[in-house]
Amino acid sequence: MTLALQGRTALITGSSRGIGAAIARELAAQGARVVIHCNRKLDSARALQAEIEQARGAAAILQADLSSAEQAVDLVRGAAEIYGGLDILVNNAGIIAGKMLDTLTAEQIDQVLAVNVRAPLLTSREFARLRPQGRPGGRIVNISSVAARVPSGGSSLYAASKAAVESLTRSHATELGPAGITVNAVAPGTTETDMVAETFPQAMRDIIVRGTALGRLGQPADIARVVAFLCSDAAGWITGQAIGADGGMVTGAFNLSRAAALPA
User: Fold this and answer.
1) C-alpha separations of 29 from 25, 33, 191, 227 in Å
2) Which domains occur in the chain, in start order?
3) What is the pLDDT of residue 209?
4) Which residue from 39, 107, 164, 220 could staple onto 22, CB 3.0 to 4.6 Å apart?
5) Pick the catalytic residue: 124, 145, 161, 232?
């Protein structure tokens, strides 16, 4: 499907690798000029930029630590300056603190909430401020998680942060609709990324696969295609929605507790 994003500019936070990188690739393939954001993975961001440019796309790079409120705001301003404005904001950056309640520290709580909740608030606010008054076609897509809908022990902080993202999505859709900006969320299931490889032992990944209706983990491109659709004119009548892209992890018949009891 051709989504015709030519002439549009997009900032994707946390896009040096994983789902964010796949989103940057897909939006660039559909014609958008993309701003790749990274915090520490500058080499990965440069490799992605080179890949996009080799495919005749347009890509720039900005670094920012989204745990800093000032840097989150400056990131959006800097991205808008590169291409003379922004049409699309994808709030993808996020961090996981998978720890049980009794081991969580105040510092961990503050950092997860700063990156996963405060940063999307600030970037969305700045994006809306920078949009010309009455210009249609603005798109904000927030990346949530299946964890917001199927939380488990040890994920309370992360799950709560992603539930907050979905709540922000609904509120901001109402606020920004009159300005011609749609706001939606995509909630991926467990997806094959470096972060998942580093965080989930193979036994847990096997359980997740057995508890997913389509019988596999997601791929970053699966999520990127949903995001690209929401950024396009084809999704112009969709706003305030949180769309699950999880292969059926949260359907009634398939869930992790049931899957854990199934034979391997």
Assistant:
1) 6, 9, 21, 13
2) 9-194+217-248 (3.40.50.720)
3) 87
4) 220
5) 145
